[in-house]
Amino acid sequence: MVAIRETVQTVGEVEKYKYGFSTDIESDKAPLGLTEDTVRFISAKKNEPEWMLEWRLEAYRRWLTMEEPTWAKVEYPKIDFQDAYYYAAPKQTVAPKSLDEIDPKLLETYKKLGIPLIEQQMLAGIAVDAVFDSVSVVTTFKEKLKEVGVIFCPLSEAVRDHPDLVRKYLGSVVPTSDNFYATLNAAVFSEGSFVYIPEGVRCPMELSTYFRINERQTGQFERTLIIADKGSYVSYLEGCTAPQRDENQLHAAVVELVAHDDAEIKYSTVQNWYPGDEDGKGGIYNFVTKRGDCRGVNSKISWTQVETGSAITWKYPSCILRGDNSRGEFYSIAISNGHQQVDSGTKMIHLGKNTSSRIISKGISAGKSSNTYRGLVGVHRKAENVRNFTQCDSLLIGSHCSAHTVPYIESKNPGAILEHEATTSKISDEQLFYCRQRGMDEEEAVALIVNGFCRDVLQQLPMEFAVEAQKLVGISLEGSVG
Amino acid sequence: MLEVKNLHVTVGDKEILRGIDLKIDAGEVHAIMGPNGSGKSTLSYILSGRDGYEVTEGSITFKGQDLLAMSIDERANAGVFLAFQYPIEIPGVTTMNFLKTALNAQRKARGEEELDAVRFLKLVRSKAKPLNISDDMLKRALNVGFSGGEKKRAETLQMSLLEPQLAILDETDSGLDIDALKVVADGVNALRSPERSMIVITHYQRLLDYIVPDVVHVLSGGRIVKTGGKELAQELEQTGYAEFGADAA
Ligand SMILES: Nc1ncnc2c1ncn2[C@@H]1O[C@H](COP(=O)(O)OP(=O)(O)O)[C@@H](O)[C@H]1O
Ligand SMILES: [Mg+2]
């Protein structure tokens, strides 16, 4: 069973304003650009307490002194941070009224994904009464979670209702000073989820959030905070979609996970932001900071990601293995096609004794894309008995794409056992011929072969997501051959 | 069913098939024998549409259609099946999943409803059993780490599941011991029917003791140099290919 929370940012009215169709709703959005006033505006809109505003302002001031990182293997024109909107109240007024008004190409994608009609409508941003069904369903889930003491709510709600927890943990894994995008997020984040699993509780269902960016020229800055108290367990799913837009949109999210003694967090992502068109126009800049802190002994954090969307992906879900005997895992499928650029990987920082980590990365590049795995395995001087296993496999489709593997190892403890394996392969003509001789068309054949290549990672996904992810693999590689 | 006329095929600038004529009616089993390098596999690839081979002259019609104008999967969906001499490994894709994807692709192409998991499983088990293919083997990645015998049995299973109109078996006997050969031959024989034609390619006569052909052709140097009944195969066993082999490539 899955409890779904949907986070939507709709700023249709901003666009209207920009083009002069409407001005009367001006007060619902922050003015263009980013100043201290913007930060105050957002905080006020969220009815935040003073401490939260101070936290944001501190981040904002720090952000002003920071530079964008340039070490990743991605190229894009300089972003004008003053030419974006940082807040707009979610409004459904300009949402399409029926499926007839939705771009058929987008609908086609949903259909292929096997998303039920009701969810297609939700994803497409249609304000229909039928959606209320889902709303009530969500409420039932809430009751059930409440019984066992699990908190699962928007972060903004948690700031008001659970200030002690938020103050204790927010920024404790990804500090406001962490990096350019994380700091920006700290200043202007407007949505996101908060999860707290109390001691000894095994969360009775998968928790899930769907994120989507709906409108133009808007940054999306969600922030997720998950705390698993002693001996608890939670599996969390994050899905993302965005409609097609001609211009690039910035998505700078932060995810923080905290696992106490004997706790386990499984975090899965299927990222399908709009990648841009055939010529590389438009698409999401996905600059995301995700980090998990295995704070307690015997704790475990496992990241699984299926990254198929975005024009640019800059993302390194990491684990700080602080508690003795803690374990970090990173399972990744990163697919790039067309003009997409992916620079993704993980960091496993071994601080505690007997800590172990496992990294399985499957990169698939097609079209004219570039796909880089960048990973760091760090071992602290005092971390005895550390083990890491890393496997990075790259698959190339066609001859205009590229794959890169950049594994860093910084071991200060000579006793650490670190294994690294890497392969690069191509889909062979023989394999394609064989599959097509059995009746599959070229795209089906590629999808099947690539799904086989990704199998080790797909198996890590919860069932509900695995099916969707497999289909997504096929869809995102359409037009990559022939 | 199949008519090949004056077929010339080159790879690069080398002519490999040099004027093949072949007519196979529905229900017939034709054996094509010949020394290594005579062009047997090339003929099977041309029929199934593999890239890299150029037809410089001649024509192929299949069920009245111009086969050469069709893509690889169009041919497969029209009923052309090739059991590979060297089956290809598909890492990470279970045999079961591969079979299901292939069968449903063909059903879709024919406008039939795709089989759901339950119906498919029942069907595949009924076809796998006579070939001694266990559920365990169906869960392994297709052809990855399969023994020679397992590969050929897996090819036969695919054929039996896809029920082609024209089955081309390229050296299905190679690498098989006699027990495995019998299992595969039984599987092939079970598929013989008045609607189905077969081309059995082999280097040795041995296979033809188990799959008895209606017609035997001898291919040498890119040409069919002799055609006869099943007794021609036995003759060859005695004399070898020497009398044909003079200009074998
Ligand atoms: N792709 C290719 N490139 C170059 N030569 C080839 C290719 N395929 C086949 N040949 C040559 O064509 C001839 C026939 O090969 P093949 O059809 O495999 O014969 P057989 O199956 O009868 O052993 C051989 O001389 C072989 O070397
Ligand atoms: Mg051969």
Tell me the radius of gyration of chain B: 18 Å
Shape of chain B: globular
By DSSP, the count of extended strands of chain B is 10
SSE succession of chain B: EEEHEEHEHHHHEHEHEEH
CATH H-level superfamily title of chain B: P-loop containing nucleotide triphosphate hydrolases
Q: Tell me, briefly, the overall form of chain A.
A: globular
Strand portion of chain B: 25-35%
CATH topology of chain B: Rossmann fold
Low-confidence stretches of chain B are none
- Helix/strand-derived category of chain B reads alpha/beta
Adjacency order of strands in the biggest sheet of chain B: 6-7-8-3-9-10
Compact summary:
The complex is a heterodimer of chains A (482) and B (249). With 482 residues, chain A is of the alpha/beta class. Chain A has helices at residues 12-18, 36-45, 50-64, 104-113, 117-123, 131-148, 155-161, 163-169, 180-188, 429-437, 442-453, 455-458, 463-476; strands at 2-9, 151-154, 193-197, 206-213, 223-228, 233-241, 248-251, 254-259, 264-272, 283-294, 300-307, 312-315, 318-321, 327-336, 341-350, 356-365, 370-379, 387-396, 402-411, 417-426.
Give an account of the 3D structure.
The complex is a heterodimer of chains A (482) and B (249). With 482 residues, chain A is an alpha/beta fold. Chain A has a domain at 26-112 and 125-252 and 261-289 and 300-312. Chain A is built from 13 helices and 20 strands. In chain A, strands 2, 3, 5, 7, 8, 10, 12, 13, 15, 17 and 19 form an 11-stranded mixed β-sheet that branches. In chain A, strands 1-4-6-9-11-14-16-18-20 form a 9-stranded parallel β-sheet. Chain B is globular and about 55 Å long. The longest helix of chain B has 15 residues, at 95-109. A 6-stranded mixed β-sheet of chain B has the order 6-7-8-3-9-10, sandwiched between helices. Chain B has a 4-stranded antiparallel β-sheet with strand order 2-1-4-5, covered by helices on one side. Chain B is built from 9 helices and 10 strands. Chain B has 249 residues and is an alpha/beta fold. Chain B has a single domain (2-244), classed as P-loop containing nucleotide triphosphate hydrolases (Rossmann fold), CATH 3.40.50. Classes of the chains: A alpha/beta (482), B alpha/beta (249). Magnesium ion is lined by residues 40-41, 85, 170-171 of chain B.
